[in-house]
Records
---
Amino acid sequence: MNRIHSFAKLALAAIGIFFALRIAPQLLTVFMIVQIRPSVMSFWVAGAWAVALCLCIVILLYVFVYKREQLAKRIAGEDDLNKQDSQMHWLPVAFRLVCIAGGLYGLYLVLFQVPYFIIQYISYTHSQLTTVYGQWITERVLSLLIVLAIAIYLLCGAPHFVRWHVKKTLEQCKKQSEINR
Amino acid sequence: MTKMQILAKSILTVLGIHGLVIAYGYYPGHYVSKGTALPVLTEVLSLSAFTVLAASVVYFLVFKNTRLSQKIAGPGQVLDPADARVWLVKSLRIGLLFTGLMLLVGSMQDLVKILKVFLLIRPAVSDIIAFKSIPRILRLSYPQWYRNIYGFLKVLLAIYLICGAPHLVRWQVRHTATADSNTKPESIPDSVNTTSQGKTNE
């Protein structure tokens, strides 16, 4: 295990715990959903939402804290664990970690908005939803779907994006070194 | 500059940019409703005062951060200028990418609005030409205009930061090199240096 691997492990655990702590207070929205219109349907919706949130937190902690060793190996590269730390090696690792943090932030924003939509859905009638709030809700849902897509791509490590960034950064570093000479 | 000073410099730059965006997001004018809006002059004056305050904070965090970063990081082993440049480029790009991603993900609704404007701009222009009246999408109150312009600029900034903000990074590197050559760097005393090197060798 080299320094990059240890750093990746530490960063992953920190990112996982941070976002789990940010998502946990969302569990309080479950009571809000039931309170706004107490009915069997809202009770079921609130229950499903609570289960989904708990699952998210458990998965987050499992992947980022309990299984962080495997994830760090995937990020830092298993073959290079015994090699010397080089700038060429840590740069993509840092970019990948940044992408993962960005992806989790996107996922957090999506989770933050979902109870809001549920409350909107159960508080307004069908005609209100299709006329007054229809267009507004469509915009919000569309933006959330885009965020979700970006978040999933970033959580997968954003390979193309990271490769492009590493290439551009190294080019800029090379130029700067040449200027110095 | 030392590695820690470079890191502090990058973090200060990132914080300055992020702080500026957040500060304008919380600017009170944005929450004022149409009926209770302040007179135009008061609004302009308060926005100018706010801009001066925000600009001064950004000036010290983004543009004149060398001395502050030296104070934060303290003395250390001074890097070779070429290495320092490379370190600064890398740390700045990583930090700016992080800020850019945060801003873009947080302003996705504004991005959808911009896309919507592109779709509705043609009928709006036709309305202006044919009926000589301002279309409904342009009839907005001051807070709505503020919110939309802020959102548009935020999206632009986020995209620029995600692209690595090449001009800003280049400027920072050049500016740091000039500041470095003008000021004598703070370095650790020789005795400490020798001790730490001795320990590393052991």
Note: The helical segments of chain B are 3-25, 40-63, 66-73, 81-106, 108-131, 142-162, 166-182, 190-201.
---
Amino acid sequence: MEERSGVPDGDFERFERFLDDWSRRDFLKRVGGAAAFASLSGGALAFLEACGGGGGGGSSSATTPKKGGHVTEGWAFDIKTFNSVLTQDVYSSLCIGMCLDPLLNSKANGDLVPYIAQEVPKVASDGNTYTFKLRKDVKWSDGQPLTSDDVLFTYNLIFAPEYAAVASPRRGDFTQHVANISAPDPYTFVVKTQTPYAPFLVTHGQYGIMPKHVLGSLAPAAINTADFNSAPMVTNGAFKFVRWDKGAQVVFTRNPNYYRGAPLLDQFVYKVVPNTTAVANQLKTGEIDAGQLDPSQVDSMRTEQSIGITGFAVPGFQFYMQNLDPSKPTGQIFQDLAVRQALYTAINRDGIVKTVLFGQGQVANSVEPPTSWAWNPNAKPVYKYDPSKANQMLDQAGWQKGSDGIRAKSGLKLQFTMLYSANSPVLSGIAQVMQENWKAIGVGLTNKEIQFSSLVTQITDTRDFDIILVGFNWTQDPDESQLFGSKGTARGGFNGFDFKNDQVDKLLSDATTTTDPAKRKQLYFQYQDLMNEQLPAPILYFNKFNYGVNKRVQNYGYGTFNQYGPRPWMKDVWVTDGK
Amino acid sequence: MAGYLARRLLWAIPVVFGVTLITFLLMHFTAGNYVPGLELNPNLKPSDVERIRENLGLDRPLIVQYLDWVGVGSIIQAVGLAGLLGGSHNIQPGLLEGNFGRSLIDGTPVLRDIIERLPNTIELTLTAIFLGAAISIPVGVVSALRRGSRLDQTVTAASVGGFAVPQFWLGLLLILLFSVQFHAWGLPWLPSGGATSPLGGGDVVDRLEHLVMPALVLAFFYLSTWSRFVRSSMIETLSQDYVRTARAKGMTDRRTVYVHALRNAVAPLVTLVGLELPGLVSGALVVEVVFGWPGIGLLAFQRAIQTDYTMVMGITTFAAILVVAGNLLADVLYAVVDPRVRYA
Amino acid sequence: MIDSAQVATTQPPPLEAARARPGRGFWRQSWDELSANGAGLTAAGVLVFLILVAVTAPLTSHFVTHYVPTAQDLNDPFSKPSRIHWLGTDELGRDTFTRLVYGAQVTLGIGFLTVAIALTVGTAVALVAGYYGRLLDDVLMRVVDVVLAIPPVFLYILMSILFRPTAITLSVIIASVGWASLARLVRSEVLSLRTRDYMLATRSLGAGDLRLILRHLVPNALPLMIVAASLALAQVVLIEAALDFLGLGIQPPTASWGNMLSNAQVYFVHSTWLVVLPGTCIFITVLAANLFGNAIRDAFDPRLRGAA
């Protein structure tokens, strides 16, 4: 198998094409600052902000849950597929999670919980073997029992050579780390990794299991376009698929035989809305019950009596990657560390969070998001917004301002084009702020909006950009090899900016091969300091999401690590008016 | 008549070919050698990619690819002259066989998605045309009858103004007023998007509720032009000789107006309405985007954002062919109705 | 692009209403008619004013408001009109007044450029097709048919997905589909003009084709072209706004009324000024262009002389 790492789990859905809103202040206000992780591990689930009457969609009230009714969740994007190994966007993952359960799932705070597996497996003494004991009571919606055959089939789609034609972005990372998979008996599934790989369970244990008796007979290439991908008639999750009106909505109905207990709701609808303003409008009119709020809408939504707002930090950040490839025009410029640090110093990140994000975010101080247990709140060096210091740094590094106001040195000009995803007011705002900020230090920035899919191709394949502004979403594991490890520079990987640092590689690899959390944390602290100094792809801010939920909906437990994908709380959701 | 028909039909053919040629070239220069899933599939080696491209015939000369696209390629193959096209690749059916390509995103046939969404667009635009005519006729007539009055001036000002409002702005304002605000005030409110309610809806009332605002926004534009047209047409008809004759004969004003003048004044409106028919398929795009109306326009827009070039070009080709067919039909109808046209 | 219904006149009123004015030429009479049309004059005045505003934008920015359109103030977004910001600020704290003035430059610039290109190309094609007739006419009109058959909005979407256009690129894109309806319009005028007596007369005097076309056809088709041009201008301004709304038009920070309006509607809850101001500017421009076009049409139509 050709060496092609770096496109593991989550991948494209990690890229935040969409504006994220968040605010750390509110967290710290409640929890008193300090240990962010501690506050999150307990708090994220029950985290509500009081608004117009208090309470909100997430609290469990004293009244008894009623069966029946529906919940409509509105999103500004349509889904693409129901195939759990092919999916590349979070919206598809959301819908897949409604009807296809995985071996393991995540709680809001990141802890793994067993789903189809009876318990979260501990790695065997050899450090490589994971044995999943499957529940015996899981049935497909057509009555067939779910066995390890189905699990083996699903994982073979990203592992077995005969299924190489299946266009899964997860195959690269999986085959890189896994030595072999097997199903010794109908309720046991075994995975053996090549070397100890700490992120394994988190990264690869959460794929929705698909039915072998439906997809097994198809030729590998045909699986990419199978009918199942648009209409999964045989499922095993909390809800059953009813229909997908493309561009309009996806409708699910209760699975009465769900092995974890039948859901209280009759139906769930994933509704496609024109844009984020429409999400806010439809929340107000009640056409949708829940939806992610654009940062600009959060404040005005607080005055709505019928809507409760849930906000929480998410394991994601917004950053810009600088193309370090020496063969590219900017490669030589960005090799100069002073340039990278000066550029970063000149960006008014506080202003961005305050004005472009309406406060729904946190200025970043590290490459690890604060939702991660490995986050170092004191990572050094610390960068404050200081245009005069940035000017100084560039002067000292020999970059002189030309007659056009742009700095130059040995024939190279500090002039860049930045690419970012179109149709995002937040990204557009950030880009314009950066443009102004850099103009003040003699750096010319041209902004260019392109469609998201082209952006992804640029990052993973074409790579002839100067700078790319994009977001990234992580799992609960602090490993960041796919973005900052040198293996990610291969074609198809996310390290499109050609960052190769031996020290970083060693830290990352050491941290994944040991399973001792204390030791890992130490290594990650070193890693964060090193990355802060190197700044190949400086982080602008950490994201926070806000959701509006109609107060008639109870137990809607949006959380940091389980917004997309299966929601453990979904089966307990009920509506007060029973409609 | 037959000669006229034949000539029009004959000239329509190169137009259709011209359209397909343009869309093909546009598609080639945008999507080019793009094959769905190819670039983003990290499992393929570059040699695999080349092989797949060869299989799909993407390395052949442009003209051959064009003939394939149109469907001439498979006809040639059926007749047994496949050798002419060079290579033993897989010839897909073309436009002539109803294959408008496959989506780059999920491989579904473009035509299938078009057929699914087309009725929604037609429903919207036809309703708008109907609304436009239904409102502009009485408005225009009344304005003409009370020419120079306050009412007339208001109507004229409103119609000239109605022309100048950006459609998306109007739509958003209507949503804010009739959906959000009315709901906040406790009044009966209109849904702010989509064609039906996701659950349980689909009945006539539900569909009408969703249809009203988008159709109104679309109709607004027609209203402005048509009411002025009806007005001036009515004014001029009323001053015609035969109207004065009818009055002189003792017919009451009312009867004069409604029976004689109205019919003749409104008839030319048909021409104007006919002019809108080609825009039936594509004219509602902005309105569809604002209201999330699941029609052809919204489909094209959503897919364009996802760089699904084949889908966008398939829709464009389909719409263009419809326009040509529509124009042809309109011409035939005029020739039937107005003999002078046939001999032009 | 042009709805020919707007340009086509209705049946002329009865002859007795037309007052003959002996001794005054066609153009003079038309000018009289135009001057008598209050709405038309106002519209013309408004247009001239807007053009002036657009042209003097850098002066306004330098001497009057003292802001450049891109200067941000992240501490003061969405502010209401005040002494330091006469019309308030936008989402990044930029001065709205300055941006509106520069927006005039971009929006009107695109409008006029597009119309200029489309009119030139369209008229050229129409002149050749209408004058020479027969096969050349058939072929050229089929080309026009092809261009008219493709719904422009799909083409705009496709072309703009590839790149976000600059003002000039956008003008070219819109003109590349817009010339066709103008060509059709002018052609029918040419066809009717071609058979006029003075054409035959001049030809029999030995005038060559080019001379006939340029010295006789064009001036007489001019009124129609002006009408079509002003109506087209109105449409282009609206098209530009719609494309901005779809995210396919002029990219910020360059200000155009269209993109100011579509950005503002996202932030509607934060500032209604931002929505109202550019929208009003667009409205006034389109209205003025339409009224002016109508006025020209009415003034130059001899059948409407004195009919008011």
Note: The CA atoms of residues 62 and 68 of chain C lie 8 Å apart.
